[in-house]
Write a structure and sequence with these properties.
Largest sheet: 7 strands, mixed
Structural class: alpha/beta
Number of strands: 22
Organism: Agromyces tropicus
Protein name: O-succinylbenzoate--CoA ligase
CATH topology of the largest domain: Rossmann fold
Strand order of the largest sheet: 6-5-7-8-9-10-11
Number of helices: 12
Radius of gyration: 21 Å
CATH architecture of the largest domain: 3-Layer(aba) Sandwich
CATH superfamily of the largest domain: ANL, N-terminal domain
Keywords: Ligase
InterPro entries: AMP-bd_C, AMP-bd_C_sf, AMP-dep_synth/lig_dom, ANL_N_sf, ATP-dep_AMP-bd_enzyme
GO molecular function, one term: ligase activity
Number of domains: 2
Length: 382
């Protein structure tokens, strides 16, 4: 059934039936009105949740997850926390997997989640919601980098925000790579932040601080990150061809998810993501991973949130352009500073940005992730 995320008690109740009791599948949708077109007739009996991907780089997909996968993900997170069951604060949209998993983890823990007010995310709203949490339980929440950055900025002048940040047992940070220095700044304020990696296809984060959660396996095949574990999705609703391309079964019967991300494993087994396999441009015959260019750009003051995209070039084929907001993007010499940063990062000359596209505000999705499709359109039209 389609359940409006504006009615969190209804959504939580529906998720309880679907994820814990094998009831009808749930598709969270924006708003408060509940359509009368059920989805359970279109999915297998073991599917508990159909959730849309964010669509930051392509058209959104509807991912089918079983109740067993949702429970496995929630329990793996609890195990990583040392078996501690606490109370969660929902600060993300429940239309996407990160928000849904806050509710599922609460259900598995047997606790009632606190919910951010309907006015959207602000530091004041975060503080107000945190005040409703049970002081006798550990507190947990999931955020995206833009939310944490707002809290860190506000905490400099607001003791209530600083106190709230330091009161959470764990803060999971995911959705995109965190800008350089953000986690350290939060830690200096007393926040215990952990970077997560995962997707709707893995029922949310399944690698924390580079380390796979319990029963999660990671391997690198031809530079691509592949994941296995009990929290993998069943596939994509109405798209068996994409499902077959994305999920593969080894000769030994082990099922793997092809993430489309590029990465490597350090000597200690920690996962490092370098970019997207479909986010590689060919510039002057040289392959350039835009994620690596973006990482270098983020290290420059004032460009922590900037987006790097490929733009056509008559001589090179493609070059990198930076979409940024704020005074730093408008400053004289900004482009030279970005080029210096990419050179210092060891990137080839083909990775040097050719221009900065200045915008009043970076385009973002409801999840807080940058809208890369919109950013590319802005850069192409500049």
């Amino acid at each position: 059934m389609k359940v409006p995320v504006g009615d969190i008690p209804m959504l939580t109740s529906s998720l309880r039936e679907a994820a814990l009791l094998d009831g009808p599948a749930v598709l969270p949708i924006p708003g408060r009105e509940q359509p009368d077109d059920p989805i359970e007739a279109f999915v297998a009996d073991d599917v508990a949740l159909v959730v849309e991907t964010s669509g930051s780089t392509a058209a959104p997909k509807r991912v089918m997850l079983s109740g067993a996968a949702l429970r496995a993900s929630a329990r793996a997170t609890s195990h990583w926390f040392g078996g501690v069951h606490g109370q969660w604060l929902l600060a993300l949209p429940a239309t996407y997997i990160a928000g849904v998993q806050v509710l599922v983890r609460s259900l598995v823990a047997g606790t009632e989640p606190a919910v951010l007010g309907s006015g959207g995310f602000t530091p004041a709203a975060f503080v107000e919601a945190a005040r409703t949490l049970d002081p006798d339980r550990p507190w947990f929440t999931s955020l995206v980098p833009v939310q944490l950055a707002r809290l860190v900025e506000a905490a400099g002048d607001d003791r209530a925000v600083r106190a709230a940040l330091g009161s959470f047992e764990r803060i999971l940070l995911g959705g995109q790579a965190a800008p350089a220095g953000l986690v350290d700044q939060a830690a200096a304020l007393g926040a215990r932040v952990h970077r997560t990696y995962g997707s709707s296809e893995t029922a949310g984060g399944c690698v924390y601080d580079g380390t796979p959660l319990d029963r999660v396996d990671v391997r690198i095949v031809d530079g691509e990150v592949q994941l296995a574990g009990p929290m993998l999705a069943e596939g994509y609703l109405g798209d068996p061809e994409r499902t077959e391309r994305t999920f593969m079964v080894d000769a030994d019967g082990r099922r793997w998810y092809r993430t489309g991300d590029l990465g490597s494993l350090d000597d200690d087994g920690r996962l490092r993501i370098t970019g997207r396999a479909d986010d590689v441009m060919i510039s002057g015959g040289v392959k350039v991973v835009l994620g690596e260019v973006e990482r270098a750009v983020h290290a420059v003051d004032g460009f922590a949130d900037a987006v790097v995209v490929a733009v056509p070039d008559p001589e090179w084929g493609e070059r990198a352009a930076v979409v940024g907001a704020g005074a730093a993007a408008r400053a004289t010499g900004a482009l030279d500073a970005l080029r210096t940063a990419t050179d210092a990062a060891g990137l080839p000359p083909a990775g040097r940005p050719v221009r900065i596209v200045v915008v009043d505000e970076l385009p973002r999705l409801a999840t807080g992730k940058p809208d890369r499709v919109a950013a590319s359109a802005l850069a192409a039209g500049a």
